[in-house]
Write a structure and sequence with these properties.
Blueprint (H helix, E strand, L loop, with lengths): L2 E4 L3 E4 L6 H4 L6 H4 L11 H15 L3 E6 L5 E9 L5 E8 L8 H16 L4 E5 L5 H9 L3 E8 L4 E9 L4
């Protein structure tokens, strides 16, 4: 297990194929992903894990498995979608239902901002969430993101609150 960051309660680590059963509980769960363009079919999840491993290898940043130290279970994911460059990345996080409301997403999101700062090439972190996802919107504001306005997203086919975080402010 390659750990990329550690907090008091969590490890952020590169996804491995043996995480498949865990990721079904968030990316493969319709309720969890209802406000995020729907669940990913279980048949495609291994490809998703491989894609995030490759992203980490190429860019030094990716979306990571969030493991609880106490149980060593994968509770969710947190990290960055990297598109054209690591200068600007998008923060994302998803957690299984049984880990909601325990502060894990906030803790993991803060860790991700530290990862971005330590990376050295990231200048801007962006984020958005469904306007109905009050929990995620609160987390973004709590950890210091600035609301920039509503923005249309083709993948979710809706306008969503759009946030930015200037890495220099960490």
């Amino acid at each position: 297990m390659e750990i990329v960051y550690e907090t008091d309660r969590l490890y952020l680590c590169v996804f491995e194929d043996n995480h498949l059963e865990y990721v079904k509980q968030f990316w493969g769960d319709e309720e969890v992903m209802a406000l995020c363009d729907g669940a990913t079919s279980h048949g495609k999840l291994l490809q998703v894990l491989e894609g995030y491993r490759k992203c980490h290898e190429v860019n030094g940043l990716s979306v990571y498995a969030v493991k609880e130290k106490e149980t060593n279970e994968v509770l969710g994911s947190a990290g960055f979608n990297v598109t054209s460059s690591v200068n600007e990345v998008e923060l994302i996080y998803h957690f299984s239902k049984n880990s909601w409301g325990k502060g894990y997403a906030t803790e993991a999101a803060k860790a991700c901002l530290e990862l971005a700062r330590n990376h050295g090439k990231v200048h801007l972190v962006t984020a958005s969430a469904s306007p109905k996802n009050n929990g995620s919107l609160k987390i973004l504001e709590k950890i210091g993101f600035t609301f920039k306005g509503m923005k249309w997203f083709d993948d979710t086919e809706q306008e969503e609150p759009y946030y930015e975080y200037d890495i220099a402010t960490i």
